[in-house]
UniProtKB/TrEMBL annotation, chains A, B:
EC identifiers of the protein: 6.3.4.18
Job description of the protein: Catalyzes the ATP-dependent conversion of 5-aminoimidazole ribonucleotide (AIR) and HCO(3)(-) to N5-carboxyaminoimidazole ribonucleotide (N5-CAIR).
Pathway(s) served: Purine metabolism; IMP biosynthesis via de novo pathway; 5-amino-1-(5-phospho-D-ribosyl)imidazole-4-carboxylate from 5-amino-1-(5-phospho-D-ribosyl)imidazole (N5-CAIR route): step 1/2
Name of the protein described by the UniProt record: N5-carboxyaminoimidazole ribonucleotide synthase
Keyword ATP-binding: yes
HAMAP family: PurK (MF_01928)
Domain of life per record: Bacteria
Subunit relationships: Homodimer.
Keyword terms: ATP-binding, Ligase, Nucleotide-binding, Purine biosynthesis
InterPro entries: ATP-grasp, ATP-grasp_carboxylate-amine, ATP_grasp_subdomain_1, PreATP-grasp_dom_sf, PurK, PurK_C, PurT/PurK_preATP-grasp, Rudment_hybrid_motif
PROSITE patterns referenced in this protein's UniProt entry, alphabetically: ATP_GRASP (PS50975)
Catalytic activities: 5-amino-1-(5-phospho-beta-D-ribosyl)imidazole + hydrogencarbonate + ATP = 5-carboxyamino-1-(5-phospho-D-ribosyl)imidazole + ADP + phosphate + 2 H(+)
Organism: Mucilaginibacter psychrotolerans
Length: 379, 379
């Protein structure tokens, strides 16, 4: 095996912000990095040894890219898995493994995996056609999710009663009981080739009930110790059952009865782990590198309270981004700005994030609200 | 003025590890960066928007490079200052200002500046020739330093008695009383255009008496509060007297009588501030960016004890670098590896650094010794 600091050529499928922050960390280890992304203006374009513009879903493109590296990883699941399988057969190391990406690409297979392995999750049914949906006796209200390619709220449809059926997806999907949840929570877990497994402490998402949007991510959680233990042990169980190598983000609901239900998996660094850059002993990006390079996993303990605020493009603005209020928020101690290198803003586009660190949790939340009110991405 | 996050083109003179870590931080602000360095394999080569190979001491090269950017900064002082002066006249912002770089390039002018401004420093005399050195009545033993181009111990000669005079430098130099110091200490201070000034807490260098080398940098200092206050106020006074915009590293001696004497200045990020990446609320690199972009300076308080160990090429090895022991040190919690992207090692070449964070100071020092014994750069 080539040494990870230099000789080894790491390919990243996807050149977005997750790849960008992964590279920022990989610089510390001299990792030689090639990136494939369809967008020639992708956030990683200037930060790697080679940036290749090409489709992530095209077999030939992914295969040819993979032949030029020793190890492949992803920062987005929507990639051509057939090419990855072939590359694995030909000796390219693919972490996370192609079979895991294939499983996670399909929300139907993901749910079946949960069921088979007794991972708690909302009741569901696999639906192959509009006809089958109508015939299903699944109790209203429920959520319909496309099996493939859903992303950031896309591919999700609420079926409150029979009258909603007309607008439902006709593609392969699954229907799922609507969870009246108390809280959205997440655990990031890592596993290396040696089988070492480590979780990051549980984080909570704070909802804005008016906008029905995740406003903040708060780390660490103040939920009861048993809930934290339970969530972390579910994440560990999934990582071990999958035998994943790399990072796995496990998004969960805590329902009103205090039961944890797994919502979705992402086999890569994830929005719910950004606060770890400043808030934990190692960041999720460092941990992903350690996992895929089969290095000892890092200590994940929280250093402080950390709140992560997504910086989204303001509604009504489209064009070259202007970051209004940045000077004001830099006046606050413990405020860390991460812009993603996207030249153009559009409504709700993820343009960056800000992490707020404070030993006083209430103060951290107060600062986070100030950041959210003050920093606006306009054009 | 263009916005620093994107429109503004920042040029960095020098593409070494200091530039590399500055870029790692600047990524968070989308800064458009061009780098000039004579070495086509310099650490920054893959991390900037444009990397230009060229001499830093050649007027035309520096001038032409500067004409393509809106703002220039440095990561090494040895640059053509005449070109910077001309660029300033033509409207390019140069931070730190060319007059400060000119002053600091010349150890004779530096010492005179200290004297004129009542900054405590070791007694000295400016020497222009071998003849003048012989005729000087400067009391033995003393140190002779070349006025220009000394670096990392080069350009320094000990004159213990008359018999040493034969080997002395004949170029313009200064002679300086040999300080019997208790400790080498340093303060990094930043000043922005608005005149805001902030110091980082005092750090100490731990000497290995056998090797006569700085082994560790320890942050924060545990010297008496008055010493810390005094050192920080000296650093502030220098930054304010110079009206510098940017970062200034102030290296000092604490002598056996408890007196602080300023040794040397560096108007840029500095080896004595690397621990700030993990050990302080903001890092020296973030602070330098905030200073030159006239943003509010960041909070500099220490988050924890931090020890910085330089990772030097092992004596006796030259060639493609191998980092022996890296897996072992990654097993320790709170150990942060920073490699500088140099393909080839040679004896004592700075190949990287490791920062160790621990709330228990003794434990941090123990871990630092372990890192130093364990991590070896061989070929």
């Amino acid at each position: 095996m080539k040494a990870f600091y230099g000789d080894l050529r790491l390919g990243i499928l996807g050149g977005g912000q997750l790849g960008r922050m992964l590279i920022q960390q990989a610089i510390n280890y001299n990792v030689t990095i090639k990136v494939l992304d369809p967008d020639r203006e992708a956030p990683c374009r200037r930060l790697c040894n080679e940036f290749i513009v090409g489709s992530l879903s095209d077999y030939e493109t992914v295969y040819n890219f993979g032949k030029k590296v020793d190890m492949l990883t992803i920062e987005i699941e929507k990639v051509n898995v057939d090419a990855l399988e072939q590359l694995e057969k030909e000796g390219v190391v693919v972490y996370p493994q192609s079979r895991i990406i294939r499983l996670i690409q399909d929300k139907g297979l993901q749910k079946q995996f949960f069921k088979e392995n007794e991972i708690p999750t909302a009741e569901f049914q696999i639906i192959s056609s509009a006809q089958q949906l109508k015939e299903s006796q699944f109790p209203f209200p429920y959520i319909q999710k496309l099996r493939r390619d859903g992303y950031d709220g896309k591919g999700v449809y609420k079926v409150l009663d029979e009258s909603y059926l007309a607008g439902a997806f006709t593609e392969p999907s699954l229907v799922e009981r609507m969870i009246d949840f108390e809280k959205e929570i997440a655990v990031i877990v890592a596993r290396n080739e040696n089988g070492e497994v480590k979780t990051f402490p549980l984080v909570e998402m704070e909802f804005n009930p008016q906008a029905n949007l995740v406003e903040f991510l708060i780390s660490p959680s103040t939920l009861p110790f048993e809930v934290q233990q339970e969530a972390e042990s579910i994440a560990k169980k999934i990582a071990e059952t999958l035998n994943i190598v790399g990072l796995l983000a496990v998004e969960m609901f805590l329902d009103k009865n205090g039961q944890i239900l797994v919502n979705e998996l992402a086999p890569r660094p994830h929005n719910s782990g950004h606060q770890s850059i400043e808030g934990n002993v190692v960041s999720q990006f460092e941990q992903h590198l350690r996992a895929i390079f089969n290095q000892p996993l890092g200590e994940t303990a929280c250093l402080s309270n950390a709140i992560m605020v997504n910086v989204l493009g303001e509604a009504g603005y489209e064009g070259p981004a202007v970051y209004q209020g940045i000077e004001k928020i830099l006046k606050c101690a413990g405020v860390y700005v991460h812009l993603y290198g996207k030249a153009l803003t559009k409504p709700f586009r993820k343009m960056g994030h800000v992490t707020i660190i404070d030993n006083d949790r209430e103060k951290a939340i107060e600062k986070a609200r100030y950041v959210q009110e003050t920093l606006k991405v306009i054009a």
